[in-house]
Amino acid sequence: MRENILIIGNGGREYAMGLVLKDDKRVECLYFAPGNGGTHALGVNIPATKHTDILESIQKYNITLVIIGPEAPLSEGLSDFLIAHNVRVFGPSLAASRLESSKAYMKDLVSQAGIKTAKYMQSNDINALSEFIHTLTPPIVVKADGLCAGKGVVIALSHNEAIAHTKEMLSGKAFGNAGMRVVIEEYLDGYELSVFAVSDGRDFIMLPACQDHKRLLSGDNGPNTGGMGAYTPTPLCDKSLLEKIKKDIIAPTLDMMRKQGSPFVGVLFGGIMVCEKDNELTPYLLEFNVRFGDPECEVLMPLLETPLFDIVTHAIDGKISELECKMIEKCAVAVVASSKDYPYKSSPAVPIAVKDFDKNLGHIVYAGVSKAESGEILASGGRVLLAIGLAESLEKARDNAYEIMKHISFKGMHFRDDIAFRALGR
């Protein structure tokens, strides 16, 4: 029987998953809730965000499988709600989702598991936090405990600045309830990797490491964003380093979750800082997310040789150990085009012009877009779209992504010109 699949979310990550699922012969129809102006071309958009409305749509359209893309619905217990109504769901439970929705919970859990992570303190007491801040050498990392769409982390360059940011978060002015508890961390110096494991609650498989580019401007300058580009595979993570991350970080975390009665089913995304100590590369855990990264998902999906459908269903059915995850031997680079005022405020919706380009270069992933009544695609969100370059080499994949970007234009369009610079140079 062919399956009707519902993908929850409205970003580039969900579009990228839809793009690979739509061509799977086992898929009858794709649905997106709520979707975006680009997902119209891949399936059917459903204007549902509440749990009950989503369940109603599942029953109405005979949907047999649900994939939850973003962190917010996971942290609101959507997975538990749907499973309680006998729906097959790919995405962790509310309890397991705390690995992302509470940085304090995550730090305490991984410390208990003996996983290498930055020295930290979590509290809602400004006096205790201030005292701890003065034990650290700047720069100092200040994190809001809850979900902040990737923008809840500040690197403070002095003790006074760290205390000021901590006070602002605790007051609720910076991030509302998400900042009412704060995590203070020592600053780790190294390079970051994004690492992904797909777990069925007991066993797991690893995907290739990616590297994200969080800062708005080229040269890693400007404010943090949800991500301005990514690439995979990265020469900064060889097989031995990935194995070390798997053994020392991913496996003990999943074991601890299972022992605590919250087995993890879905995608565990580790933000890793690789530090060089005594001429040896040592991975430290920065954070966990409980879903595919965005924009990392957009570079992983086109390189999957093992179908996403198989990965998802094997995880749900508790059979991930029976699956060998194979990747196409190519490289992928994603360059994000954002709106003029991102990440500070929203910009007015404007038309997007896309000229014909050689499809052998790669493709476009639509994210913050809407569809006008005329059928025209409009740039309406912060991160609007991504140019995905594919090639045998990383350098060629990067060139292809930027070649595609030359064929795209909209008013106020911004993108970085140095994606993959840590691997290739500027």
UniProtKB/TrEMBL annotation:
It catalyses: 5-phospho-beta-D-ribosylamine + glycine + ATP = N(1)-(5-phospho-beta-D-ribosyl)glycinamide + ADP + phosphate + H(+). Pfam families: GARS_A, GARS_C, GARS_N. Belongs to the GARS family. GO terms for molecular function: ATP binding; metal ion binding; phosphoribosylamine-glycine ligase activity. It comes from Helicobacter cinaedi CCUG 18818 = ATCC BAA-847. Its EC number is 6.3.4.13. It is an enzyme of class 6 (ligase). GO terms for biological process: 'de novo' IMP biosynthetic process; purine nucleobase biosynthetic process. Its cofactor is Mn(2+); Mg(2+). The keyword Nucleus does not apply. Residues 107-317 form the ATP-grasp domain. Gene3D superfamilies: 3.40.50.20, ATP-grasp fold, A domain (3.30.1490.20), ATP-grasp fold, B domain (3.30.470.20), Phosphoribosylglycinamide synthetase, C-terminal domain (3.90.600.10). Keywords: ATP-binding, Ligase, Nucleotide-binding, Purine biosynthesis. This is Phosphoribosylamine--glycine ligase. InterPro entries: ATP-grasp, ATP_grasp_subdomain_1, PreATP-grasp_dom_sf, PRibGlycinamid_synth_ATP-grasp, PRibGlycinamide_synth, PRibGlycinamide_synth_C-dom, PRibGlycinamide_synth_C_sf, PRibGlycinamide_synth_CS. HAMAP family: GARS (MF_00138). Pathway: Purine metabolism; IMP biosynthesis via de novo pathway; N(1)-(5-phospho-D-ribosyl)glycinamide from 5-phospho-alpha-D-ribose 1-diphosphate: step 2/2.
